[in-house]
Amino acid sequence: MVLRMGSPAPSIKVEDWLRGEPLANFQPGKVYIVEFWATWCRPGVAEMLHLMRLQAKYRESGLEVVAVAANEDAPTAVEARTKLNAWLTEKCSNLNYRIAFNYTGEMNKLWMKPSFSAGLPTSFVVDRDGQIAFIGHPSQLAEILPEVLNGSWRTSDKAKAADTERIATSEPMPRQQALKKPIDDRFWAAVKLEDWKTALWAIEEGIALMPEDINFRLAHAHLLLHKIQDMWTGLPVMRQLVRDATRQKLRGFDDHGARPTLPSD
To answer: What pLDDT score was predicted for residue 172?
Structure first.
């Protein structure tokens, strides 16, 4: 079932609430932002400050912000929770909204996958009737929230057009991620072993499959120049990458939170 504007909001199924009171269900008459994020997500603290401002500005109008950490990197739930708690204490000790923790993948199954959402952060807005009013990047929240709060957003032509465009754009992403996963798995296994030639073969397979994917292209140049140190091959690859990026020929999800396929130095 596709999750889109007008769909009933899914349940909140999490293991723990790290900040704020637990939320059992959405209360009629309130508007909720349910934001999926992770500590490794590049916007990080800036997005949290943005949500804090929105919560403070619209609390009296019935807004409640719920951030869901469902994609933390750690071998176990205990380690993920500990890491997340430490990060929150260091980066945002004065949060004014809830933080939920989910390690089982249930929230992604209920919210992200049915809406074809692939990147982080992703915001869902639940309106006063308990229905999805918006799915997208949090940078759009300041514009659409006043209309959601006054009840005019979901019936507007602008909202309908935005949701139709989002579905058309986002629907191919899960298929692309499924194609990329075995390549990413081989790549990261080789990186852990510092087997740069095998990592390079995996990336070159990815480029053959998706020549416009910027993550594969960046990893290709990085491996050649910094790991294998084949300047003769790597410099032309980097020059072509810059040319294509300048001409906006490359497709990437970094700005929406997908993790780049780059080995660390």
So the answer is: 67
Q: CB-side exposure of 204: number of CA atoms within 13 Å? A: 10
Alpha carbon of residue 179 to chain centroid: 18
Question: What pLDDT digit, counting tens, does each position of 188-241 carry?
Answer: 899 989 999 999 999 999 999 888 888 889 999 999 999 999 999 999 999 998
Compute how many other C-beta atoms are within 10 angstroms of the C-beta atom of residue 180. Answer: 19
Give the model's pLDDT for residue 109.
Answer: 96
Name residue 98's beta-bridge partners: 66
CA-CA-CA-CA torsion sign (237, 238, 243, 244): positive
Which 3 state secondary structure label does DSSP give 253? coil
Q: How many residues does the chain have?
A: 265
Give the pLDDT confidence score for residue 248 in this predicted structure.
64
Q: Judge whether residue 184 has pLDDT over 70.
A: yes
Q: 224 and 160 in contact (C-beta within 8 Å)?
A: no
* Distance between CA atoms of residues 23 and 27, nearest Å: 9
Residue 63 Rama label (left phi>0; alpha psi -120 to 50; beta): beta
Using DSSP's 3-state secondary structure scheme, residue 171 falls into: coil
Task: DSSP for 139-151, please give it.
Answer: GGHHHHHHHHHTT
